[in-house]
Amino acid sequence: MEAVQPTSNLTSTIEELPMDKALVSDSLSYYVVISVALLLAFFLKPSKDSHASVPFYKASRMKWMFNADSLVRDSYNKFRDQVYQIKATEGVRTLVPSKLVGELKSLPEEVLSASQAINEAMLVEYTRFTFGLHHDAVTLLMKTKLTQQLSRLVPRMKEELEFLVREEFPDCEEWTPVKIQPFLIRAISRLSGSVFVGADLGRSEQWMDTSVNFAIHVFMAVIKLQFFPTWLRPVAQYIVTDLGQINRDISKAQEMLKPIIDQRLQDAELDPSGERPDDFMQWLLDALPEEQKRDYQLQAKLHLILCAAAIHTTSNLATDCIYDLATHQEEQDIIREEAKEILEDEQGWAKKEGMGKLKKMDSFIKESQRLAGNVTSFIRKVVKPINLSDGTYLPAGTNLLAPQCGISHDERYFPDPEVFDGLRFWKMRQESAEGGNRWQLTSIGDWNINFGLGKHACPGRFFAANEIKLVLAHFLLNYDIKLKDGEQRPEPMMFMMSKTANPNAEILFKRRSII
Ligand code: HEM
């Protein structure tokens, strides 16, 4: 059988990225010497960060770089409920267990800062990857316009998905191998695009290309800059060409957005009480002060950061779910039955509560996320000293993380943690009224931190959950899904704390006959 790959010209994986031309030249040996010197400086440099007086877990920084998943799980298994530290590539990181993270989640920004931690991690002075002063306005739009009455967006997104499947997904009359990860990046990009910038621009190849690759350019720029000591970065920025790519992405997005923004402002002037488009571009335009409504560059940057937060995260989890459905075929019928009953028989596609009623599917997605989700969560920087109830003192300047993958495999919270049980959270929701709310995909709690915790918890999670349910429902209702004979669930790819669903794996799809 020939492997079919859905049409895609997006540079969607790190592997496919062109080599940084600035680092490859005729005088290769010169660069090799410089690189080795920098690597040595990087690995040997003493850390100037403040850190708590808590035990260190000894492991090489290389392990953090290439195998952070097992490093965090092993260290968590050793320390469990204790605060401990790891020497990460970016400096010392202090890991706080579930038992204590609850004491931190409600602290104000002036004491424990998410934005400072993220700005430092993303090297914003070079990458410009920040909502900046617009952070609160943008996240408020996500919590209100994007999340409330999410159901009104479902028909639009469903149409978009069906359009894409018709255009780009193979027929699958027989069992057909498909590289599903690149397809799902395109699908999530289109679904999000239809809500963020409207279907016309959202469908444009140039918009998809720019909005998907922006995140990769930022990620690559951060990784490369991290190899230079802080004092050398002002110079290094001129040889890390991904930074130039970031600027070009913003310019391209600006060019694409400008005519639409101008048109919308003109329409509003001509007919102030007329109906407005219902998308993020319009909500943002309405929220911006008068003098920023024609700041095209600002809006381009905010849109690209929104896409960077939204597309890879969601397509990653959707891909993991497909890998788990293919691996646990026995669970497909259960989830399919539920989708058929609620979305088709009860016509839930068009109903407000339709997606919320897919409780077994919700549980399946959460289980996929538990086992395949991020390595850490709750990135924060201590701004004013904090005393924890176990006596741990966290001085200002301490960089915190929660050991998410350790917590997700802790048998005290999740019995038989290594077993994939798609109905695990559905069962937990049946146990009590409290459990009904606590164990939804979008719920957050001290050992439920896949979407973060506290004020900065992911504001896009309800939207992401809706998108993933829509995608899974479509595939389950229309296809049978399985692994190739003799193959195991595709392993994720790990690099520098970033965990990606395997982009190259092929999964078999066969169209179901319509009964
Ligand atoms: C499965 C998909 C997603 C996952 C796993 C995910 C995960 C996360 C996590 C772990 C955080 C950090 C929370 C914290 O530090 O407490 C976060 C923050 C954020 N996410 Fe998501 N996210 C997803 C989808 C989305 C989507 C679809 C959007 C936009 C529509 C979005 C927008 C954001 C924003 C803006 C923040 C920063 C919030 C703040 O700093 O106040 N995310 N996300």
UniProtKB/TrEMBL annotation:
Organism superkingdom: Eukaryota
Keywords, alphabetical: Heme, Iron, Metal-binding, Monooxygenase, Oxidoreductase
Record keyword Iron present: yes
Pfam annotation, one family: p450
UniProt cross-references to InterPro entries, sorted A to Z: Cyt_P450, Cyt_P450_CS, Cyt_P450_E_grp-IV, Cyt_P450_sf
Annotated heme binding sites: C458
PROSITE patterns in UniProt: CYTOCHROME_P450
Cofactor: heme
Protein's UniProt keywords contain Transcription: no
UniProt-recorded Gene Ontology molecular function terms: heme binding; iron ion binding; monooxygenase activity; oxidoreductase activity, acting on paired donors, with incorporation or reduction of molecular oxygen
Protein family: Belongs to the cytochrome P450 family.
Protein name as annotated: Cytochrome P450
